[in-house]
Amino acid sequence: MRSDEEIIKEYLAGDDESLKTLIDKYTSSIYNFSARFVGVDNAKDITQDVFLKVWRNIKKFDSDKASFKTWIFRIARNTITDFLRKKKSVNFSSLDTEEGTFEENIPDEIILQDEIFSKLEDVEMLNKILDKIPINYREILVLYYQEDMTFKEIGGMLGKPLNTVKSYHHRALILLKGEIAPKL
Amino acid sequence: MEQNLQNLFKQAMHQPGSRLSGDIFSLIEYKKAKIIKVKKFGYLGLSILSLSGSVFSIWGLIEQSTQLGFFKYLSLAFSDGGIIATYWKEYTLSLVDSLPVASLGMSLFLLFILFISIRGISYQFKNKILIA
Question: ipTM higher than 0.85?
Fold first, then answer.
């Protein structure tokens, strides 16, 4: 199976079908990521914008700096931020300086062992709960649990240190737990 | 537990319509074709301008060269090679002196623009063929 970097090289060498391969591979992920922040109604437009930006800037992509996955998600994040800014909604960075008021010393494994998570079985319920979680934390959950990105990749995408990403993930789990509890 | 949470998150993913990736590819192809069209007309306009400019410029270059006697000096090289071999320094100076430098520079510049624009047109046509 060809890597993303090989596919890009083939596209730049004149093989237009390679771009189609990349689009097919990432459309679902970018659509889902966008829908989490701008809603399903706007996700299609955002996804199109993201791929147009990818196409326009593909010559600038440098595989030494980041993987294609990290790069495309960074483009998606910037596109979503621009969209939310135009709509005057809260953007990703507005919560970056938020101070922690959570149970910082409890390891993730302990939080995840909580019975509350075992009772979370309903997809619709999860979607509603995710919508209530601040976008900074929602973003970490989506990238980690839905897009299978590692903390390192997420850090590379957000331009944040590994420990900050882990801390955000930790807070996100606590927030998730806090949102689930009243519904059970 | 993390695995269960991951599975649930995966199930909760928003799925796009099956045509979205095809639509995106078509949109990119459309935008690409539009850019090619604009560039093609741009290069075509530039080549027409530079071609007509080159014709006038070369015409002026020939006229000025004739007035300054460049061709007379040049013909000497073919008629009497011995004199030129003896007085080559003077001959070269006279030849250079009779050359309309500004007109020559302008003609070469316009020919260069013409070459660039023709190359641009052929590149855009090649792109168009690739898309088709």
Answer: no
pLDDT in tens, B25-83: 999 999 998 998 899 899 999 999 999 999 999 999 999 999 888 888 888 878 877 77
| Nearest residue on chain B to A138, alpha-carbon basis | B9
User: Which chain B residues are Cβ-neighbours of A126 within 8 angstroms?
Assistant: 8-9, 12
Separation CA A17–CA A19 (nearest Å): 5
Residues of A in contact with B23 (CB under 8 A): 48
State how far the Cα of A89 lies from the Cα of A96, in Å rounded to an integer.
Answer: 15
pTM for this entry: 0.76
What range defines the domain where residue A49 resides? 4-86
Closest CA to B101 of B57, B61, B54, B42: B61
How close B24 comes to chain A (CA, Å)?
6
Q: Is residue A95 part of a domain?
A: no
Residue A165, domain CATH = 1.10.10.10
Q: Across the interface, do A146 and B12 touch by the CB < 8 Å criterion? A: yes
